[in-house]
Amino acid sequence: MKQHKTLLTYMLLAVLGLTACKKALELNPITEYANANFWKETTQATAALNGAYTLLQAAMGPEGVFYGEARADNVAQNLTSLNTESLNLLTNNVNPSLRITNWSQLYAVVNQANLIIQNVRVMNQSGLYANKTAEYNQTLGQAYALRALCYFNMTRIWGELPIVTKPLKDATENYYVEKSDTAKVYARIELDLDSATVLLPTSYAPSQTTKALLTAGAVNAIYTDLYMWRHQYEKALTASQKIISNTSNYSLTSLTDATALENTSYARQFTHGFSTESIFEIDFNFAERGARSFYIQVYGDIGFQPAFQVSVPLMTMFSPSDKRATISYNERRDITKFFDKTNFVRSTMDDKNIIMYRLSDILLLRAEALNQLNRPGDAITIVNQMKVRAGETGLLPTDYNNLTKSQVEDIILNERSKELCFEGKRWFDLVRTGKAISVMQPINGLNNVDNYVWPISLNEIRLNPLLKQNAYYQ
């Protein structure tokens, strides 16, 4: 795992040094700059944005998986693993001394976005973006969207947060900010998404870049996720419809478009990335840029001692006809979803993209919203779309007509569990729907809703005396 760094260290890295993302971003790398001599050319702002994506790589690879899967029921401990942190999370022994409770890497992305937002506006006022309106909009819009994405992920993990909208300047500036309640955090997220949505295009050229950079579609995916998290179902339907209607950029992959299952477009979206289904994914390439997502330390062949293997409860969800099971894991319970099934070589498997949003995710969130709005038939239509693609038989009205809303929700959540397994979604699904205790208590003893949020790292509390530990961990 990556070495821990404090919030202050990461924020200063954002100011003093940047490295480039992968080739898909089509950006030139920069290695270091002095702040006084920066923000003089639009290419420098683009390079700073590139640095923000690099920091997002560091924040989410592989922490995004740990936040979204390690406390839920899709994964189990690999008994040969040397990773003790994964065992702490699986057994719900979440404490503020764990490395993963530190939010510094996500705040580093926020700080970089703050730098961009502040300075790009000044550059525009100075005329540096004359006749470059599209470039200005895209740079500023992506910065807003990155900040919103990070705050949304952080508030789902830690709850109340310090809201920081101005960049840290240097090591002499004290970073003392108290937490704001979640309502204010949500308001900040929505303001940033509102700003981003009027600035960002639906796509970029080349087309591969559309999946690696934040677009209008990615903003609508974050909107959908946020509205579902807040139980604002009509708004979630509106945001998700904008994605579904954009058929030129987003369409479902197939499990029948190749003779070998591992060569289907469905399977290759996890092993090769940038599928037609992808809305936004964090782009990694070790050979070209040295960027690693560290998925191999989390999943993969048990012989390589990854943290997790597939859980028995998840295995029992898959029917014998469901082709997704073969793609997701093998008979040894190795999690194979993100790796080539033949010629597995560890050194070439450690840079798989992290898919933040794809069309199936948004469709199934939409199904949840439809069910909550008393439209179970429309919700099951989406579920059947997933089932039939996977090789299963769709549900009939007689299978769900007499079910309660909660029971239909369970059907949708089970489908999400199979479709999105190991992609960092399951824990948030359980918390969002209020089912975390009923599902996890028999597994790890979870019994208190205050335990849903994570503790704040002791290092962060030492750095910022205004921070108060989350109540459950005091």
From TrEMBL:
Protein name (Swiss-Prot/TrEMBL): RagB/SusD family nutrient uptake outer membrane protein
RagB/SusD domain mapped to chain residues: 335-473
One Gene Ontology CC term in the entry: cell outer membrane
Lineage of the organism: Bacteria, Pseudomonadati, Bacteroidota, Sphingobacteriia, Sphingobacteriales
Name of a matching Pfam family: SusD-like_3
Coiled coil: none
Extent of the signal sequence: 1-24
Cellular localization per UniProt: Cell outer membrane
Origin species: Pedobacter chitinilyticus
